[in-house]
Every structure is written in C-alpha cells, then in structure tokens.
Amino acid sequence: MSLFVLMCLCGALTFSARFLPLTGWLPAKLPAWFERAMYFVPIAVLTPIITHSVMVTADSGIAFSDNLRLPAAGLAILVAWLTRSVIITLIVGFACLWGLNYFGF
Amino acid sequence: MTSALDEFKRGLLDELPLQIGIIPFGLVYGILGVESGMSILETCLLSVVLFGGASQIVFAQLVASATPAGVILASVSTINLRHLLYGLSLASYLKNLPLRWRVLLAYLLTDEAYAMSIIRFRSGQPSDYLHYHLLGTGLLLFIVWQISTITGAFLGTAVPASLQLGFAVPLSFIAVLAPVIKRRAEIFAALSAGITALILHDMVWQLWLICAAIIGIAVGWAVSYLDKDNQMEAVK
Predict the structure, then answer these.
(1) What is the pLDDT of residues B60-69, one digit of tens each?
(2) Residues of A with CB below 8 A from B106's CB?
(3) Which chain B residue lies closest to A89 (C-alpha atoms)?
(4) Does the predicted TM-score (pTM) go above 0.90?
(5) By three-state DSSP, how is residue B128 classified?
(6) Residues in B touching A53 (Cβ below 8 Å)
(7) Taking chain B, what is the end-to-end CA distance rounded to the nearest angstrom?
(8) Any idea what the Cα angle at residue A64 is, between residues A61 and A65, rounded to 5°?
(9) What is the ipTM of this complex?
(10) Is residue A95 less than 8 Å (CB to CB) from chain B?
(11) Given Cys at both, which of B8, B37, B70, B108 links B136, Cβ 3.0 to 4.6 Å?
(12) How far is Cα A19 from Cα B54, in angstroms, rounded to an integer?
C-alpha cells in the first residue's frame, strides 16, 4: 500500500469518527445515563495523554525518578489551578523543565 | 443574544492561548515527520488529510519503523476513536445544522477545539450561533497547525532535542483541565484514567488511551451516581 493511500485511509477513518455522531442518526434525546457518561469524556481522554506524556519514556517505560517532567508538570498543575491561564501554565512549566535541566538536576 | 460574528470571535479568542502549546507541538510533528523518512510534502499533506496531532506523531513513528500498513491504520483509528466521543457530546448542539456545516465542523473537531468549545456550549448562555464558536476554535487551530508543521518540516533537525518541545502537549492539557476538575466524581475520573494509562502504557497499538478513557468515564459516572450529583445531566 502506498503512503498516500494509507494517509487517505487514516484520514477517512478519523473523519468518520468525528462526523458519525453529527449525522443525526442517533436518537434526539439521549438517555440520562449516557449524558452523564459523556460529561466525563474530556477528563477521561485528556488525563491519560497527560500522564503518559509526562511519565512514560520510550527507553525505560514509566519513570518516577530522574524525570524532570514530573516536578515541572506538578508545578504546572498548581499554576493552572491558581491562575486558570494557559499562557502562564506553559511558561512556568517550560521554565521549570529547562531550569532543572540547566542546573543539572 | 450574541451574533454569529461575536461567537466566531469569541471562539478565536478562547482558542488563542492554546496556540502557545500548538506551535511547538506542530513543530515537533514536522521535524519528526521528515526524520521518519517522509518527504516535506508528505509530512505537510498528512497534517491536512488527518489533522490530528497525536495520531500524526504515531503515524510518523510507525512509518519510520517500517510498521505494516494495517497496524498503522489500526493504531491511528484507535487513537482517534476518542473523537467519536467528542462528536457524541456535541451532537445535541450541532446535529440540526445543514450538512455542509456538519462536514466542516466534524473535520475541525480536534482535542483543543473541543476542549474550548464544550465549555462555551455548556456555559448556559443561549445563542443560535454556538456553531460559529467551534468554527472559530477549529479554524484557528487548523491554520496555526498547518503553519507550524510546515515550519517544522523545513526546519528539520535544526531544533535541538534538548528543548523537549513535546512537553507542550501535556502542559496545554493541564492548563485546560486543572481548573475545571473540582467535584469528587471529576477527581476520581481523572485519577483512574491517569493511573490506568500508566499501568497499560505498553499495550499494543496505543490501546492504553481508549482503555484508560473507558475506565475514567465509568469511574466518574459511578461516583457521580453514588454522590447523587446530577449536574452532569443538567449542563446541556
């Protein structure tokens, strides 16, 4: 299979996942239990991406020690919670990571 | 009642701060795409055809390791299955729009656009033009993503790996999630999903993501049910 065909197939499947719920084929009023479940989708999808990106390395699997991303992410959580600012969270997170790297931690 | 232009501008403004995380993420993908053996054109084309950051990076990594096409297809589909859930949670707001709108908004429905627009949709402030908010968030993200990936593809290996620009991805999501996780059910959903992702991190085809999401949703649902917290159904 050529790379271009593979790209198009991946694109078509991704678009299908995004478009299918908007087709109107689903019931007009979704059950209350389902709406309750959907409420947790952002938290349940984005949190694993965060933990995986911060704690899992390609070389050694889960890294608790010698992982500078961990304190930087911890500080970023605190800053995000206090300031509710994406910009400040990114600046503080990167400053912490680069600072710890620079000072040889 | 807000106008279509107001909603569009609000979507742009809501999405704007996230671009600080998107730009390095796009650069990282662009660099990785070229390093994986794809041409600059193929790297940039994937950004248009797929338009899904995490899955593009996995695509590039799998192409670099000469993974069979079927496995790449399954991996990308698995990672992007979560968009089905995003669409489902937005369906009640969008499903009566004309087809051309639904096609356009479905194409633009990414993590970051969803994260900002769902907050607006659930804000309780009425508007006939809520879809313009998603158009604003999605369109800005699309433009910035394309420019970033093109830049990254041309920069190639000139950006030092020591900068760890990939860290922008979790930082962006932390900035979005941390302020909104308040109730017991939300805390339990986040903890269970996050821990599950670590336990299952070496699952094939990145299946840890879907498994962790299902566990997180189930735990959040169960705790909210036990707490008799009905706000999750009221925020429509």
Answers:
(1) 877 877 778 8
(2) 15, 18-19, 22
(3) B175
(4) no
(5) coil
(6) 166-167, 169-170
(7) 17
(8) 110
(9) 0.85
(10) no
(11) B8
(12) 19
